[in-house]
Amino acid sequence: MKKLLQTNAPGAVILIRLVVGGVFLSEGIQKFLYPAENGAGRFARIGIPSPDVMGPFVGVVEIICGALILLGLFTRLAAIPLIINMLVAILSTKIPILLGHAFWGFSLRNLPYYGFWGMAHEARTDFAMLLGSLFLLIVGGGALSLDARRTKHSRSTY
Fold this sequence. Notes:
The protein is an all-alpha fold. Helices cover 73% and strands 0% of the residues. The protein has nine helices and no strands. Helix 4 packs across helix 5 (51-71). The longest helix has 25 residues, at 75-99.
């Protein structure tokens, strides 16, 4: 467990944590505030199975993991479900845009254009959140995190 919390990354990692954690926390809350647009209703339109279960489930995951990343607590562990979240988002919403038709049971939204450029435009936040989450998985929470404080504290007690 100590190895998962350990980080040698600089304090500037807090900037990535603020973006990644803030976006996920905000999106998770919105799945409950606006379920028809961002939660179960959206999941149903996309073609996600069991949208009434998956919408709130994903919202809770985004809230909890987003908050953990903001705090820099269990940063690497919190990044894993968010990476999975973004991979599913890309598969279910961006691949149909790239192909220009429904894919694997996931529907295609009505957009002005499809193909690579349509997908690239629609996926910019998804790719940023995926890469930010991968970065945090690799480097951890950085020097200004609760993970760093916990490992520093545990080192000084031995």
